[in-house]
Amino acid sequence: FIRDRNASKALNTNDGPLMIISGSGMANGGRVVHHLRQRLPHKENVVLFTGYQAAETRGRRILEGADTISIFGDEIPVRCRVAKLNSLSAHADQNEIMRWLGGFQEAPRKTFIVHGEPVAQATLAERIQLELGWEYVIPHHQQSFSLG
After folding, report:
1. Of 65, 84, 103, which one is at a domain's C-terminal end?
2. Are 125 and 134 in contact (CB under 8 A)?
3. Residue 46 · residue 40 · CB < 8 Å
4. Would 143 be classed as within a structural domain?
């Protein structure tokens, strides 16, 4: 377990076999970016994503097979093997969300759907309306609401 920045940086000087487990995210910031810069160019390495990677993030570009990735202004070649483990997620799926919502004693005045890809949001919204009869909102970027 690495607690500080310098110890994390020291991992990048290790030439031998190494497994780096990084916190969830889209690979757009944090210590993982330094590790990616060091590991992506080498075909003997594997970058394994276990979490969702949103569209237009560095993580998604890597998963979709980009030949190079911009890191700190440099184009870094992606020569390593890239894989995704789909069985791990910190997020509930639609069935789990619907089961959770179904346990409410009373319906909220509005249900805000603020996470996920647009198609998944629309599908969840439709289920909330059809199965629970609740009002929902899929807010636009920077849209605000009065909750009082």
Report:
1. 84
2. no
3. no
4. no
Residues 6+ apart with CB under 8 A from 5: 31
* Residue 148 belongs to a domain: no
pTM for this structure?
0.64
- How far is the C-alpha of 39 from the C-alpha of 47, rounded, in Å? 8
pLDDT in tens, 77-108: 999 999 988 766 667 889 999 999 999 999 99
Q: Are 87 and 97 in contact (CB under 8 A)?
A: no
Tell me if 144 is assigned to some domain: no
Q: Helices (H), strands (E): how many in the chain?
A: 5, 6
- Clarify whether residues 71 and 113 are in a common domain: no
For residue 130, list its beta bridge partners: none
